[in-house]
Amino acid sequence: MRLLNERNIEDIALGAAVLGTGGGGDPYIGMLMAKQAIRDYGPVELYTLDELDDNDLIVPTAMMGAPTVMVEKMPNGDDIVNAFKTIGKYLGKPIRATMSIEAGGLNSVVPIYTAARVRMPLVDCDGMGRAFPEIQMVTHTIAGITATPMAMSDERGNTVLMETINNRWTERFARSVTVEMGAMAMIALYAATVGQLKTAAVPGTITKAEEIGQTIRSARQTEEDPVKTVREAVGGYMVFKGKIADVQRRTEAGFAKGDAFIDGIDEFAGKRLQMSFQNENLVALIDGTPVVTVPDLIATLDIDTGEPITTEGLRYGFRVAIIAMPCAPQWRTPAGLDLVGPKYFGYDIPYVPVEERYG
Amino acid sequence: MRIGIDVGGTNTDAVLMDGTTVVSATKTPTTPNVGDGIVTALKQLIAQSGLQSSSIDGVMIGTTHFTNAIVERKHLQPTAVIRLGLPATVCLPPMVDFPDDLREAIGGRSFLAHGGHEFDGREISPFSEDEIRGIAREIQAAGIHAIAISSVFSPVNTSFEEKTAAIVREIIPSANITLSSKIGRIGLLERENAAILNACLRTLAERTVTGFKSALAEMQINAPFYISQNDGTLMSADFAADYPVLTFASGPTNSMRGAAFLSGLKDAIVIDVGGTTTDVGVLQRGFPRVAALAVSIGGVRTNFRMPDTLSIGLGGGSLVRGNPVKVGPQSVGYEITSKALVFGGDTLTTTDIAVAAGYAEVGDANKVADLDAAMVAAAQDRIEELVNNAVDRMKTSAAPMPVIAVGGGSILLKRPIVGASEVLMPPNFAVANAIGAAIAQIGGETDRIFSLADMSRDTALATAKQEAIDKAVAAGANRDTVEIVEVEEVPLAYLPGNATRIMVKAVGDLKES
Fold first, then answer.
1. Domain residue limits, chain B
2. Is B293 an 8 Å CB contact of chain A?
3. Given A257, A359, B41, B496, which is the most exposed site by the fewest CB atoms within 10 A?
4. B398: which chain A residues are within 8 Å (Cβ-Cβ)?
5. How confident is the prediction for chain B on average, in pLDDT?
């Protein structure tokens, strides 16, 4: 067990934005919420799964909805506590701790707010090891853990509790409820025991995000090559270095889709990388040949600072490094690829683990 | 004829312009009471040109005075904030991300009230007159007159902010009220922050605008005068007294607009090379391209439409040292006239390199005659690389664009710039700021979320454009000259009904009185 303070939160949000692979939300609001809660209620305890009892019940908490709405209608704070407590009441069991469901800039730190408010620990794990856009896209689904009972709360005091037949139905209903709640809801879902999470979750995510955040911050101060140090810190591969030559965007079914075209520099001169994204970076091709695909992680970093760039932030002229990281092993199973493989997102490309191409 | 004045932190510059001709220009030190410096500048201008003050049609003033007050935490009024949005937004109260010293400097009193809207126009909770009355009485009892009012999604629906202002004014008739919807865009904290900064500057703004007025009266100039704002357009002096925060970043904007005017180009890259830094910006249709990301002023995050400039550590005073040769970011700054080799100093600077390479005639060229030619070439290569990279980063496409170089340090830019179709160094570049103020126009903008399920995209765009045009006319533009200069559509992820955020900016010539 260790304590998380305000400084840790900045590093976690920054590092989680790298793991967010271009998506995962703007960390600013989540980071402010978590810092303010620690200021008001004291530091948050972070436990590893091994430090907890196998029977302990863990309930993840998160924000769901449109990022544009989150920056305007911020939560009440009691809403996320309501969602969290409703699950415990419904299950009739005491909850031991909360956790992050995704490693993105926003939802990596929102559970820190919950933890501070309810005076419970945070568990050092998450349900993706990266960011994904839909509720069923968590490692819990592969392990057979259901998203429901799921509680969704708004600032008015409304809480919707749902039971569904599978996690894709949960996504459908939850999306509608979110809209009624004002395009933003605070949610608690995927209740599981520590024993289940030892195989179902991605362990160590919070610490990993924090280390990445620290690496970027200290690379700024020294004159090291920040991209190289980040790549080493995440155990990733250098896929490409170049200058963004064009970004094409379109919206389909509520998702911000698009492609960025990057012209190589240095050892990649003369080559062109195409990166396709749908909220998150999903597929990278060099001169038409796939080099990394979802569910492996594709992060875009500013070449000078090592800072992650979101898909919304991609712009002509940016000098970027594309690094790839292996995804959590759960995603590489047939069930995992069924949920989040290239085919699910509409790319007719077979999945080849990044280590096999770069190892 | 028009007079443009730039009141900077160090210098007050003034130009007299007849149509598109610069008749006369002057530079004097800025005074603690800004009016005195303006009077001095005007006197010089009139003496140089033999002008009758009656033939002046308008005076345009650009100033960094209000930005500096925030940065230095000086002359700020105690301010109260009322936010409508309960039961939402409680977890992040107003001023939550302010630096402590600024929060203390303005008293930091905030109140949350019911109200606010959803993204689709529904009310979050009903507005309560009694609740606002109670808050207004508390503010009155605390003796506070500067009040900022924000409401969730007020850019979509301004009614709750307006109702609140009316009630507060009933109870505190002398209140200086700033509505967030009049200032900022979507993004509650950033818009509210801007409203708070505005509220705490109102007293200073009134005093300053009165100072400007009496300076002009002293010079017997009866022409209307305007203050330039951050998007390169003008506001009337009385409007500026109400919205001082809109002057933030007008300096770089005026300088880029001035560069556009001096060169006659509407689409170009502008490089402003100073002593320590080089600022690179982009002109699109004669206006600076605005930054997409949040901009921090005095440690406070806002979402103003600031010019998108890239600042790099290269200037006329940048240090040149090491092997391999390194240029900047350290600089001798204003001490260049004593420290650079060509001025008899002992520090090798980029100016010395320019002189050694034969690009410029500054100081004593003999003092750099012995510099190693290979080192001079390597330093030039490095300068070229820095400039090329900065220009390339700011470009929006691979097509070559003209580059306008202004600023005293532009003597460094003799080599061709990659991606530049031509490099222009216009005369009078030293007063580009004041010229930018003199030629400014009147603008209006709208920024709202439209649901394309209810209306066609064309209708939504036409509605937004009409709103922007009406706002420009209301602000004093001549309707016949108003044109749309910027349209931005952002489809919103995870929202139903094809929600799209549309931002439109319209600009027109000043209506002559």
1. 72-206, 311-435, 441-508
2. yes
3. A359
4. 245
5. 88
Task: Clarify whether residues A118 and A53 are in a common domain.
Answer: yes
Nearest to A58 by CA among A47, A69, A66, A67: A47
Which phi and psi (to 5°) does residue A216 adopt? -65, -45
Phi–psi pair at B194, nearest 5 degrees: -65, -40
CATH number for the domain including A349? 2.40.390.10
Token pair 């769901």 is found at A64
Q: Is pLDDT of B493 > 60?
A: no
Same domain (yes/no): A114, A21: yes
Residue-wise DSSP of A141-173 = HHTT--S-SEEEE-TTS-EEEE--SSHHHHHHH
pLDDT in tens, A189-228: 999 999 999 999 999 999 999 999 998 888 777 667 788 8
Q: Which of A226, A230, A356 is nearest to A296 (CA)?
A: A356
Is 0.90 surpassed by the pTM of this model? no
Number of domains in chain A: 2
H/E segment holding residue A77 = none
Give the CATH number of the domain where residue A45 resides: 3.40.1610.10
A322, A275 in Cβ contact below 8 A?
A: yes
Question: Where does B72-206 sit in CATH, by number?
Answer: 3.40.50
Assess whether A124 and A232 both reside in one domain.
Answer: no
User: Quick one: what percent of chain B has pLDDT higher than 90?
Assistant: 43
pLDDT, tens digit, 9 for 90 and up, residues B52-81: 888 888 899 998 888 888 888 889 999 999
Task: Give residues 52 to 91 of B whose Cβ lies within 8 Å of A.
Answer: 85, 87-91
A113 shares its domain with A47: yes
pLDDT of A52 = 98
Q: Which helix (H) or strand (E) holds B407?
A: none
Q: Is A30 helix (H, G, I), strand (E, B) or coil?
A: helix
Residue B347 carries which DSSP code? B
Residue A310 belongs to what domain range? 227-358
| Cα distance between residue B162 and residue A128, in whole Å | 45
**Beta carbons of A106 and A25 less than 8 angstroms apart:** yes
Which of A10, A72, A223 to mutate against chain B (most B CBs within 10 Å)? A72
In this structure, the answer to whether residues A132 and A245 fall within a common structural domain is no
Asked whether residue A174 falls in the same domain as residue A261, the answer is: no
A192 and A277 both lie in a single domain? no
In sequence order, the 6+-apart residues with CB closer than 8 A to the CB of A325 are: A19, A234, A235, A236, A237, A296, A297, A299, A354
Residue at A171 is within a domain: yes
Q: Does residue A113 lie in a domain region?
A: yes
CA B153, chain centre distance (Å) = 25
Domain presence at residue A31: yes
- Axis-axis angle for helices A6-19, A27-41 (nearest 10): 160
Q: Is A299 found in the same domain as A164?
A: no
State whether B152 and A319 contact (CB < 8 Å): no
User: Which residues of chain B does A178 touch, with a Cβ-Cβ cutoff of 8 Å?
Assistant: 494
In a domain, residue A240? The reply is yes
CA distance A352 to A277: 18
